[in-house]
Amino acid sequence: MQQAVVDAGRPLPQLTDPLEVELQVSAFVGPFADNEELWEVVVRHLEEVPSRRSAALLTALGHLLPGQSGVWALEAARRQAEPRWDLGALTFGECWIGDRSIDAGYLALLCSYSYGDSPHAMVFMIDEISGSLTRHAFLTRQVEEALARLRDEMRLELITPVAAHWLLSRSYDRFERRPGLGVSMDVHQTRLVARRRIALAMN
Hints:
By secondary structure, the protein is of the alpha+beta class. It has helices spanning 2-8, 18-29, 36-48, 52-64, 67-77, 143-153, 161-177, 185-189, 191-202, and strands spanning 90-100, 106-115, 118-127, 133-140, 156-159.
């Protein structure tokens, strides 16, 4: 498993788009994100073998892994060269909520972000019938198009980033306590991307 993680990090030094880094790492790290024993070994290995790949993987893991594992990775990353992309440059934009709980049983939430001049958004469908569980979560670079499509389906209201991510935090907490519940693959693949934004907004 350790070797698989290291191998999966091979493309990271060549990337220039921080969002692409987040998506790639979230997709292959997500299933093992809470395994501190694994990350302690991986971080130690990457420290002992300095390289552009080690530096890039440690930096990405430091921003995306939860808890102590992320702290270990960030500390180790500081002792190596910085990658070409900057995950610390993420900024928050507007958040919108649409309530279809009465007729369709769900809330829709669009949260926008940016890396420099490159905006993106995450769109979440929160199932109000099944205990406010996030059923779908996808990421798009076409922010205005996604917003327009949601407006065609429901009335949207602005919501502060803190309030939006508080709702998401509650929803993801339920999902992580009961991972066997049926959610789309997108929720699993983007979980660390969403969790990182929740943590930044709440802190």
